[in-house]
Amino acid sequence: MKPDFLAQVNATCAGIPAAIATGHITSLSGLAVTVAGLGSLASVGDRVSLMRRNGASIPAEIIGFSASHAHAMAFGSLDGLASGNEVRFPVFLGSRTPKPGGSLSVSDGWIGRIIDPLGRPLDGKGPLPPGSVTRPVRTSPPDATLRARLGPRLDLGVRAMNLFTTCREGQRLGLFAGSGVGKSTLMSMLARNTACDVAVISLVGERGREVREFVEDDLGPEGLARSVVIVATSDSPPLMRREAAYAALAVAEYFRDEGKSALLLMDSVTRFCQALREIGLSVGEPPATRGYPPSVFAELPRLLERAGPGIVRPDGSAGQISALFSVLVEGDDQNEPVADAVRGILDGHLVLDRRIAETGRYPAIDILRSLSRTVPGCNSEDENALTRRARAILATYAEMADMIRLGAYRPGADAKVDEAIKLRPAIESVLSQGRHERCTLDESFAALRDALAEIPVQENSVAAARAVS
Q1: What are 124-171's pLDDT values in tens digits?
Q2: How high is the pLDDT of residue 462?
Q3: Fold (topology level) of 17-92
Q4: What pTM was computed for the model?
Q5: CATH topology of domain 103-375
Q6: Which residue ranges are recorded for the region named Disordered (predicted)?
Q7: Which of 92, 116, 139, 411 is the most exposed place for a label (fewest CB within 10 A)?
């Protein structure tokens, strides 16, 4: 027999359980189902099937224990479940036992597809082609001492980000904004324009009405052709919304381990945390900060640290996951618990400001409150001097904005304020960008250089300092 045929047979046999253990439902409270009869066979993260009265099954996951009883949460509706209904748990032997948390058989054929967190197609294009390797959905980040360093400078295709939050391959950024400020549009621009091999987009708790609008209008055929989109809408059970984040990381890790540069876009981490809160409270975990149980803030770094550079290969190469995690800040409070925790884990942050959006400038990035921790090392000295001067001009104008609007400032009183008044419109024009417009790194810095060329400021010019020396 051919080796490939034997490998297929072994893989098929490995997926067949040796036996089916059965238990029964004893109670159902809120979102949690209490199961008796599984004894010590099941562990946290194992998948079981809850049987309805009509014989249909609901996939569920063990999320906790109380004495000899297991607590499960379903991936679907609990309608039709009753006390005494059967619970089925597949039992595997030895190394065939699947890792807790489920798995996905990812392949390159998933590119261009829309799927749910369990790896089922949602786009009506037929079944997904299976991969040769099954990947666990939940896994640990790569060993910190074996990971590659960040890669070269990454062209994001968005002028404001290329200039003021310049990134490297493998970097992780947070996108902090309230609702309706343009997060989805900015993420679609990144999915289309970023210089990467594949984009993995996770829509966690997205409005069902907006999924098609995002895919067809914002992402478009060009963006979808190089993307894998994972969707769990807002009406999905909390387990599905949580799983959308884990599944996206598993898919991105597959492409990273293939040596590719993957872009991960997740909208949003806040809804992931809200799903974790619902799960934790359902099993009796005590609420802490703003109702979030402690397990939420323990799980966040485990998720976010999975993005980034991969393990260095023998030839010195490594795949990368460059990631942008959006955070839906409640009440536009940039210091709410989830935002504060995410900001401390990632390598930089973007802040979208509602007041800027109201002026009609998109993307509505607040340059003065956004930063990338890799900027000093990935831009040239001249480029850093250029962005520092632009920041200083915007900061000067922001400080004097009220006096300028009220007419209390007299032109000529301060040379720096006069410069800020003259150059700010040109800088704002550079920061403004249409959603279907793409701008490379070189074009971005050229545009800013032209905007600042109207009034040369000798003391801040690196070129002038070199000429004097």
Answers
A1: 999 999 887 789 999 999 999 999 999 999 999 999 999 999 999 999
A2: 38
A3: Thrombin, subunit H (2.40.10)
A4: 0.89
A5: Rossmann fold (3.40.50)
A6: 122-143
A7: 411
Given this model, what pLDDT does residue 466 score?
38
What is the SS3 assignment for the chain? Answer: CCHHHHHHHHHHHHCCCCEEEEEEEEEEECCEEEEECCCCCCCCCCEEEEECCCCCEEEEEEEEEECCEEEEEECCCCCCCCCCCEEEEEECCHHHCCCCCCEECCCHHHCCCEECCCCCECCCCCCCCCCCCCEECCCCCCCCCCECCCCCEECCCCHHHHHHCCEECCCEEEEEECCCCCHHHHHHHHHHHCCCCEEEEEEEEECHHHHHHHHHHHHHHHHHCCEEEEEEECCCCHHHHHHHHHHHHHHHHHHHHCCCEEEEEEECHHHHHHHHHHHHHHCCCCCCHHHCCHHHHHHHHHHHCCCEECECCCCCCCCEEEEEEEEECHHHCCCCHHHHHHHHHCCEEEEECHHHHHCCCCCCECHHHCEECCHHHHCCHHHHHHHHHHHHHHHHHHHHHHHHHHCCCCCCCCHHHHHHHHHHHHHHHHHCCCCCCCCCHHHHHHHHHHHCCCCCCHHHCHHHHHHHC
